[in-house]
Design a protein that fits this description.
With 479 residues, the chain is α/β, with parallel strands linked by helices. The protein is 24% helix and 25% strand. It has 13 helices and 27 strands. The strands form eight sheets. It has a five-stranded parallel sheet. Helix 1 runs parallel beside helix 8.
Length: 479
């Protein structure tokens, strides 16, 4: 019999993880990956580091094109899919090429959401020249090219991506203002107290924050070139040279919908990550909707990709859902969120020190940490994550003690971490697995540690006994 023809539509972080796990599991089918960008998949979380100038473009590449060829994977870059024909079992590209499949995986990710701001789009249907999206490496390169001539920037959106971009622009010397329609920053991840601490910390770092306000119109100069400002719904006009849109995204579902697959907010999948419409079609990552929920974070996408790869390799496993873990990667700002600290039910233990920019919140139910938000101080995040993952039943005083610094003791070093403690939350890698690696390069290759948000790099480097620097992470700042 001919080997199964597996086609993966999309070439982002979820698709890369899927292919890595298929290779590791010795999947015996023929794998074709269709990516519409002209470059191999890269770490989108670290795009702000590229903008900031602390990472070269090559430093965020997940796998070289040669890696796919070496493992018998047909990687087709610059291949945008036009339509999926489930009856004839093929995919048509915009250039007319037809790619047949026996099994199809949708990993199409998400699309940026355009806020209702007048003037964002020109009469020709393009973004205004002064307006920048920030979802791809091409977006990053375009914005990076505009930075040297800019004095001021307005970032529309105060979520994780918005804060990362704002800090990157500030580090590059651009006076930056953040506009967030909700009453506080990171409103989907943290509560009012943590949002207030973040706003204060940003202001201390030189970034102005406007919350409870929405951008409604671009203000153009009489010459018709560029923009002179952004008008808010409270009447304030913010002078600016650049406008960056980071106001969220939505699952990319147009291909699935046109193919007649079940779609709500995302492409509907069951616990096998299979479409209820067609058993030969699967979805993972940002485009997938599992048990009524979609995700915009790396750990759940990688969990889904791993489960699906194992199933395709013959393992009888199911996806029961993923734990929510989010980290903010921005110079001068430290944020970690476990679960849903805003909506989770339970007893709340909270410690706030806005003067030094620290806020910690635990939600505890029946002695178990079910959610947490840590801002400004992540010294206890490893221990808290360990309790969260294991469902440890804590004593009555332990939650409060977890939020207080160690008294009279030095901060624990990486050498003191037990082997079973998770160090890389994105890839789910323990200290023991990292200690078994010869160096940081091998750790990345074999475990994918540090290839998510990158916040664990220093700890991983200590565990493998090498410096945290990487030749590919040289400073490339031009201003």
């Amino acid at each position: 019999m001919s080997p199964e023809r597996l086609v993966v539509v999309g070439h982002g972080m979820a698709a890369t993880r899927l292919v890595e796990q298929l290779v590791a599991g010795r999947y015996d089918g023929q794998v074709t990956v269709l990516g519409d960008e002209p470059v191999p998949a890269y770490n989108r979380i670290l795009l702000s580091a590229v903008l900031e100038g602390t990472h070269a473009d090559s430093a965020i590449t997940l796998r070289r094109a040669e890696w796919y060829a070496e493992h018998g994977v047909d990687l087709r870059l610059g291949s945008r899919v036009l339509a999926i024909d489930r009856e004839h079992r093929d995919v048509m590209l915009v250039d007319g090429t037809v790619v047949p499949f026996d099994r199809l995986v949708l990993a199409t990710g998400s699309l940026p959401t355009l806020p209702p701001v007048r003037g964002l789009v020109t009469a020709e249907g393009r973004l205004h020249p002064a307006v920048h999206a920030f979802r791809s490496l091409a977006d990053c390169e375009r914005l990076r090219g505009a930075v040297p001539g800019a004095r001021r920037a307005v970032v529309v959106g105060g979520g994780l991506l918005g804060l990362q971009v704002a800090r990157a622009l500030s580090v590059r010397g651009v006076a930056t203002e953040v506009v967030e329609g909700a009453e506080h920053l990171l409103s989907r991840q943290v509560g009012t107290g943590a949002g207030a601490v973040l706003a204060r910390s940003l202001r201390r770092l030189g970034t102005t924050v406007y919350t409870g306000a929405r951008a409604v119109r671009l203000v153009e100069p009489t010459s018709g070139e560029g923009v002179t400002g952004v008008r808010l719904d409270n009447g304030v006009v913010l002078d600016t040279d650049l406008v960056v849109l980071t106001a969220g995204g939505r699952p990319a579902t147009s291909l699935a919908r046109a193919a007649g697959l079940a779609v709500r907010r995302g492409v509907v999948v069951d616990d096998h990550l299979t479409s209820p419409t067609d058993p030969a079609v699967h979805a993972v990552g940002d485009c997938a909707e599992h048990r009524g929920a979609t995700t915009g974070f790396v750990p759940p996408a990688w969990d889904q990709a791993t489960v699906l790869a194992r199933r395709l390799c013959g393992d009888d496993v199911e996806h029961a859902g993923s734990r929510g873990v989010a980290r903010l990667r921005a110079t001068g700002l430290d944020v970690a969120v476990l679960g849903d600290p805003v909506g989770a039910e339970g007893e709340v233990v909270e410690v706030t020190n806005p003067v030094v920019g620290k806020h910690s919140r635990l939600v505890v139910r029946d002695g178990v940490v079910v959610a947490a938000a840590l801002v400004g101080d992540l010294s206890r995040v490893g221990l808290i994550t360990q309790h969260y993952d294991r469902g440890t039943v804590l004593g009555p005083h332990e939650p409060g003690q977890l939020l207080l610094p160690e008294q009279g003791a030095a901060a624990p070093t990486a050498d003191a971490l037990p082997d079973d403690v998770e160090v890389c939350a994105c890839a789910g890698v323990s200290a023991g697995r990292l200690r078994a690696c010869a160096d940081l390069a091998q750790a990345r290759e074999q475990t994918r540690a540090t290839t998510g948000c990158g916040s664990c790099t220093a700890t991983c480097a200590q565990l493998v006994g090498t410096a945290a620097t990487d030749p590919a992470c040289e400073v490339v700042r031009t201003k």
